[in-house]
């Protein structure tokens, strides 16, 4: 992980990653640093770092998550449904598609936002290849071609997950800049300050 820039570890089911997406991009543009997009298998991250999946958390913790989401949605002017119909399905295909497209040097911001928006705002099942294909087509991407590439990205998906854990990541979204970890979209201002204080090498 020696490459300069922001190493962005996120789950393709992460409501918080959706809320932070545009602000992360704005920080990177302002500071002139690249973002390295690295989808991870968050259930595996949890299993290896002591995390607890949402459905297994206490009612108090689940209720507070909804309260916090509602606060941030108001603050950011970005509405989402905290309990969508298809909540946190298998994100493997979505993740490996995003990795394949990113590895090809194509932009992935609008695609991964569209996938997250489909889950959290549009009541769509992102584990369904037909749903993913429609999302990709809306982004002018050849779904059949990228579905063929996706299985070849499984090793990289696992490598990103391993790398995230090695960097201290235990939740999504997480941002690592010059070895410093920032967990959660509510830490983006602190990430911005860290980049300002320690600019990346030219």
From TrEMBL:
Enzyme Commission number? 5.99.1.4
| Family in the record | Belongs to the GST superfamily. NadH family.
Quote the SUPFAM superfamilies the UniProt record gives.
Answer: Thioredoxin-like (SSF52833)
Q: Where in the sequence is the signal peptide annotated?
A: none
Single Gene Ontology MF annotation? isomerase activity
User: Please, which domain of life does this record's source organism belong to?
Assistant: Bacteria
* PANTHER family on file: GLUTATHIONE S-TRANSFERASE KAPPA, GLUTATHIONE S-TRANSFERASE KAPPA-RELATED
User: What is this protein's record name?
Assistant: 2-hydroxychromene-2-carboxylate isomerase
Q: To which species is this protein native?
A: Alcaligenes ammonioxydans
Q: Which UniProt keywords apply?
A: Isomerase
Q: Does the keyword Isomerase apply?
A: yes
